Every structure is written in structure tokens, then in C-alpha cells.
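User: Please predict the structure of the protein below. I'd like the answer in C-alpha cell form so I can feed it into my own downstream comparison script.

Assistant: Understood. Taking the following sequence of 290 residues as input:
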Amino acid sequence: MPELPEVENTRRYLVQIGLPGRRFTGVNISWANTLKNPSLRELQQQLPGSRVESVQRRGKYLLMPLDTGATFIAHLGMAGRLRVHPQNQPAPPHLRHTFPLDDGRELRFLDSRKFGKLWLVADPQEALPPLGPEPLEPGFSVEDLCLGLAGHNAPIKALLLDQAMVAGIGNLYADESLFLAGIHPLRLGWDLSAAELARLRDGIVAALSSALAQYDRSRAAEWPDPPPALETWTIPRAKGASCPNCVSDMACMTVRSRTTWYCPQCQPAKASQPVSRQLSAPTNPQVGVR
């Protein structure tokens, strides 16, 4: 499922390929359930002629403010992709929607699972759920985590998946962040010490920043059609795989219905030590949120 690094990679791709400044000239929707607001007829009336002012991201949502004052919003769902191709280029597999542009290209929404969503709204808050702080913004702090987790009698893995707690983290990067911080996925949110919260904050930033750096290199190497998804995490997710830090066997369990990988040695059920060699990250993530 696309998480913050995948969605931010898509945002950077759309900016790099020149979507900002282009005008939509049409709307072609082939799977009506994708469109959440407005109706298809209203979208066909309102979107053509509007110019994309910028491409932004908030959590796992892509926002395209238009010169009309409205905002075109996309959520990639489980397997969605956005690409800009010439209109005469053969359609790739799983192409669901196209939005022709004024330069002979079109914005294409590919979605094999059909879980993607689209909105055209006057105010982004009409579409966005409550979202917590952006973890790659300079202001993201240990205090943010402390305030969010205070009083929560739930496993930290489940809390990290709550978008109102921290925006953009999903299942894969929650596992990665906890591994880097040396924290067991079932530790309760209120029970984490100040030192553990500091390690968790650093682990989140390191995991996401490292992933974005890999995506940046991939776009540079494989432009103009870079892969939309890479295995950008440290944790091996396979039965019998060894921990990259201590070579113990990795373990798998279910936390609130989500598959969770962790190292019992590096992430003990009680207070743990950090996987210090992993906690490094680029200092300028350039995340492009609003």
C-alpha cells in the first residue's frame, strides 16, 4: 500500500514531469466508485479548463490546487499510480481514468485493486480526515509523539497506524520505525519513556528519509518511467529471515489485524536499546506538504 514515501515519490514525479502549469482539457472515468465528490457530470463540467497550480501532499493524499480555487485530490488506495504520458501512447495495464492535458499528454490513474479515490472540492478539509503532524517537517518533535500517545492504552504499532497521530505512516514503515528504535510493537503508547520516544521519533524520520532518498535515486536512474514502489525498508519480511542487526530469526505476529515483523532480540517486550547503526537520514527531505 502506498505510504508517505510512495506518495511523496509520486508528488515529486508529477512536479518533475511538468504537471504544474498544465490545464485539464477533459475527464474520462471508467470506474465510478473512485470518484467521491462531486458527481461525474459535475467533474466533467468543472475540471476542464482549470490549471494545476502545484502538486502537494498531506499524509497519504495528493493535492492539486487549481487556478479556479478548487483542489483536485487523489488517494492512491492499495495499488494506485499516477503517470503523465502522451495521449497517443498505448494504455498500460489497469488504466482506470485519464485526464487529457493542454500539451497533448494526459494524467493517467492506474489502479489494479480499484481502491483509489478522487475528489474535486472547494476546501481540502471536505475530503481529508483528521491528520496528525507531518513526520518529515522540521517541526516534528518528541513532544508531538508524547502528546499524541498520552493516555493511549493501545499497542504502539496500532497507534502509529492512526493517521490522526502521525500523518502518512502505514504498516511497512511502522514496522521499520519500531525496529530502528528498538521498541517492541506491543508496547503500550503511554508506557514509553522519554528516551524511547526520542528514539522512536528518530526512527520514524530515518526510515522515511532513507526511503525517499532511494526513490530519488530511482527516479534519476530510470526516468521517465521510474518504478512506483521499491523495497526501501531494512526489515526482511520472510519466514526464516535473519535480523540485519543481530542475525537472530525475525518474528511475525498480528497486531490489530495487521501483519507485523520484528526482532525479538533487538525489540524486547520491555525497555529496549536502539539499533544505533540504522539511525541516520538525509537532513533535507523536501517533503512538499502544504
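That's the full C-alpha cell string. The first helix runs from residue 4 to 16.
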